[in-house]
What does this fold into?
Amino acid sequence: MRERKSMYKIQENFLDTENFQQIKDVILNSNDFPWYYSQLVGQKYISNIYFSYFIHTFYDNNSIKSSHIKLIEPFLKKLKVKKLIRAKVNLFYPTNKIIKFDEHQDTDFKSDAAILYLNDCNGGTIIQKNNFIQSKENRLLKFKGNLLHQSTSCSNKKYRILININYDA
It folds into this structure.
């Protein structure tokens, strides 16, 4: 994993092709993968329809929330997750121009966070206001869960999609 700055790390082609493609196929091409609409982006409710997104929660509050939890096992195994705190997939739809969502922390305690981007687009994650990490297929972004960051929409693809987990390594 190459280090960008001490506050985050990026690794390209994180999962092997077979595992990555299986995750993408189930999430994007399956008729039985449920999505849930959310107006809570970051930690703030936004009433504008273009500032919302769809989520699917695999794990939260010490319990499995999805029958699809096994899908992300290769991801969790490669990260060497000892304790899972939360795991979800986010699907942001495009906006005319890139929108920066609410700056937030995933946790207010010491934990690790990882984002696995499932598609290429011009959207991304902003760490500490000025470090933009663009969404790139099979790119992993690791940082501390209590680090301030924010998501963005995209403006050049049908969607921006990623898996976000919080864990102890």
Notes: The CA atoms of residues 57 and 88 lie 4 Å apart. Helices lie at 17-29, 73-79.
